[in-house]
Amino acid sequence: MNNKNKMGLAVVLAGCVAGNIMAGDLTSYATGDVLICFRNTGSGLDLVVDAGPVSTLAGYAPNSRTTITTYTASQLSEIGINATSWSAFTSLANNTLYMTEARATNSLDTQTSPWQEQTSANQHNTALRISTIPTGAFQNLGAGYNETNSTATAVIEESASSFNLNYPVGTSYTDSLLGSRHGKFNGTFQGNPENTTPANFTTAGKVLRSDFYQMTPANGYVDATLIGYFELNTNGVMTYVAYPSATPVINTFSRAGNVTTINYTAGVYGTYTLRATNSAGLTANRTNWPAISTLTSGDTDSHTVTDTTTDANRFYIISAQ
To answer: Which region among 188-197, 198-207, 225-234 has the lowest average model confidence (pLDDT)?
Structure first.
């Protein structure tokens, strides 16, 4: 590339559409409703939230952001936001599981290694543990512990349900998850689904993210399918991001005559567009730069695209939506 034909590049990820999630109801819990549960050993309380059908989450468009509105920040504050563990999960009648896995706090934009799909019998044991949680929460709503700030979609309950008269049936989130084996839904699940906020979470100013995986029963070692991630803000607000696109990357580019060859990596979900401008267009919003090509997506492999131009200077970005 000579000095006359200079090229620059930038990579951006387009903004996402926001919305509110469809509510569930713990008074008439339906199999397949996603439970978002919080526990805090300091307060001795859990918060059990029905976030609505998993089919609703699975039906959102890639990269859409949806606020979880079935609990309030004040309810979460009652059990504690700092040093609080949380997870999201559900199961279907065929023993398909949906389960969170915490991203590392120092690499929030990096997907976790997926859970493994297991046999129907193995996943059934975890589904049974999950099914006791909404029953226990219902017993604590209007009776039992009877926390006045509880609602039909978000119940504040006691963490200890064993030998507790407030739990004539069902169990607390804490006891269902820990059991006698101290975690992983009493050892029935392959790993820990929880994310834990630091002691200074409300003042640290950094969100937490947990990937949300679908595990259809399978024989053998099969990676679960990522359908989104949950993001907990320092103010206690939870957001669900559906089918997040991988950050697009321009790996290499070269120029031969009037033809620029660009090697890139897109992602599994979303639509990726190569955009370009010359020096005169740099002041425009980058997502409004002219579209050159719709890029190949659906995998994380490297692909190549070309752009023919007589511009002396050319700048490229990849946008995702």
So the answer is: 198-207
